Amino acid sequence: xxxxxxxxxxxxVREVLSLSLGSFGHDVTSIATPNEAVQMLEQQTFDVxxxxxxxxxxxxGLDVVRxxxxxxxxxxxxxxxxxxxxxxxxxxxxxxxFDYITKPVxxxxxxxxxxxxxxxxxxxxxxxxxxxxxxxxxxxxxxIGDSHVIQRVRDxxxxxxxxxxxxxxxxxxxxxxxxxxxxxxxxxxxxHGPFVPVHCGAIPENLFESELFGYVKGAFTGADSxxxxxxxxxxxxxxxxxxxxEMPLLIQVKLLRVLQDMRVxxxxxxHEIQVDVRIVAATNRNLEAEVQAGNFRxxxxxxxxxxxxxxxxxxxxxxxxxxxxxxxxxRCGGRNVFISDACMQKLSNLPxxxxxxxxxxxxxxxxxxxxxxxxxxxxxxxxxxxxxxPEINLNHLQEQGISLDTQLEHIEKxxxxxxxxxxxxxxxxxxxxxxxxxxxxxxxxxxxxxxxEK
Length: 454
Fold this sequence. Notes:
By secondary structure, this protein is an alpha/beta fold. The protein has 21 helices and twelve strands. Helix 2 runs parallel beside helix 3. The radius of gyration is 24 Å and the shape is globular.
């Protein structure tokens, strides 16, 4: 049973949804205004908040999303709307919404969404990525590992943090580029300001300009009020542009103007707004090659590459893998699981083309398939050849002592991980490869403890 706060300005909608939610055994508090929502959130703890988007003719639901996550950071927020659009979805998710529900909603669909939301709430503390684990450690001024290459990275980050110039972080996928960006911010004089991460590959091209620079009321159909862009949101702090190589050329021109003048112009406005933002960018691409190919502006590349930081692959610092494994095991709930020297050696010798992210996935799979008290060293060889299709029959299930549901989950996770690997961890593209909807993809990732790259 969940404690649910329901906000909708239509009494009949509140009544129908309250009855539906109550039939599932949930405790529902229904209210009519955003002010009441804030008061309730300050007085009582909720598992889920369901809020209407349009109230009194305005998109007040987005403000409720932000306020709810600010007052109760761990609450799951669902946006209820009859006006669903790609832009609404992007804005809602960026402000912390778990999902949006399109009106009218059936009782079955409502029950399924609440079930997924509660499942995500239950697993979220134990399935944080290693980058988040390391970010927690980094607030204490440490990087995991003592290799010479990671020591050089640590020194470069400290030097970059002291100087208010743009930083370009390079490295393969899964090496911790966002972690490095957060460290630059946390160790800089701007650490009192916001750190605003933006994944350039996750924003649809037609929404890029309005997301980065904002817009004014009436700028286009659906622009019912002014909106602050991500650049403005980072004022006084750091804007982290992850996978900058995927930014469209037209937006690159506009970003160059921001770097030169520290001014932004919202879509539809004739006025410029002064900002004070430090830009840290990251990419797994060779931007110099992209410049030669005409895919990236040369002038923007030199503006970004004032202080370069290169994140080494795990293959360049294998001596750090044991420490990373121990950190991951604690985060994955396997702190008491025995790892033999031979097992650790095998882990250290894996190809690990996906770096930290691949190591994390490997350990999660080992924990799921091994006995409770020790990692199965023999499974590592099996995982090194993921394309091999094992014979699956009833005898196999009985010998392994696993159920059909467990076997199907293993197969599902392997296919989802393969799709994510092929699309560089882009959930939208991976969903297309698997022939499922983005919402279904996101649900499966949350159920399986997988995370899309940030």
